[in-house]
Fold this protein.
Amino acid sequence: MFRRTRTATTLCLLAAITLTAAIIAGCADPNIGDRTPLGHDGSAKYVFLFVGDGMGPAQVHATEVYRAAVHNQSHGVKTPDVAPLVLSRLPVHGACTTYSWSSQTTDSAASGTALATGFKTNNGMVSMTPDLTPVATLGELAKARGMKVGIISDVPANHATPAVFYAHQESRGQYHEIAMQIADSCVDLLAGSSLPNNERTLDLEAIAKAEAAGFRYVTNRAELDGCRPGDRVLSITPAMTFVTDRKPEAQTLANLTRKATELLDGPGGFFIMVEAGRIDWTGHANDAKATIDEVQAFDDAVAAAMEFYRKHPTETLIVVTADHETGGMSLASSGKKSLKGIACLADQTRTYGKFNEVFFQAWKVANEHLWSGAADNIPADLKQEVEATFGFLWDDLGEKQVALLEEAYDDSMGAVPDVPGMYGKREAFPVAIGRVVSQRAGIGWTTFGHSPMAVPVRATGACAYRFGGFIDNTQIAHRLAEVMRVELQRK
Ligand SMILES: [Zn+2]
């Protein structure tokens, strides 16, 4: 393919492809190219693909019910309501199936490969077909036709979902091999929270290789703000942790999305993929408040793309979807609910994972000599810390919830191995707290893993209508390719 430098030459390319008389006429007169935005003829110059990793319909709806409940509570309103997210207000709604080549329940690598290449593959594989053939990604094809490419995530930049757009590996676990592909990849901007190697430490070798290839390596928000259009950027910001635990100055998906539009805007247009990877992680943890906070942050990024869209409405396409659902989340739970309903989640000030990491692990070590056996009660100081962090009083809990916490406390103190399916291979006591908080909010979970249910698809802008209806995730790749005027490989 060749690099386009002007909109007029873009239209020449389109004329060759579409052979329509009107566009051929446009090629004869360069001015017509300036007057006829790309979005008008079934193509899009600026393409956003948002992937809420693990974001099923329940994750979206829980967030919308929570937003309304918190608002109503502060205004003394008692009737139920829903406060729709930006993504729900996009005009085109559909859903897509997510199964992989190897399983009804996909992982992020296989589903990401479907979104990035149009091919189903085995769980774990990164933009390769099951017979280990690497297949071109939308990022690579966009780059080849002169678009700038941004791949943005709030989890490590070489994790499955970002990787499938720029790398090819047999296994998503080959972190170092994936990271080493960055230097020669299609990306103009790659952003994530980390870049681990196979030993799970920062992959300095891959970073050095990327820098040698011309990447500017930045590690925080201020450094990224200093980057200018034309810079090829590798942004690795470790402070980008869970929203519930994050410091205000930390990088956000919305900031990254806004900065990406500034860095990548140009005559050739761009393809930007934004992944909210932590919706998946909070789903795996069955942490309801943290899930809602991550969905809200994802939606803030969609809102940032909408700011760009409003300036370029006929040339911009925004597609929002997910790779699969995580947690089997539902908005019904048989546990005793809080009088505040789902608004009680506003009183949770940390993920239970962070509570475990910064408080409970140390508390356990300091207090293990006091624990004498499985009949011990939870000490008052631990109860107080739980009440302060998660916003409930022990006296407001139901009998079964107290029993659940007491049992999990003993399992944690006694270092009882995980009962299959009970604690999701995590520390028992914090998981039980998360379960109780979810019950109080009226939220249920069926698994610590992924579920096979169909996920939402939302779209607005140029060619958005093509993303409505009930489709398969591979169709999203095919339709994106068509509107970007690139050709996915076919076997
Ligand atoms: Zn995923």
Notes: The pocket of zinc ion is lined by residues 53-54, 108, 280, 323-324 (CB under 6 Å). The longest strand covers residues 316-326. The CA atoms of residues 290 and 394 lie 21 Å apart.
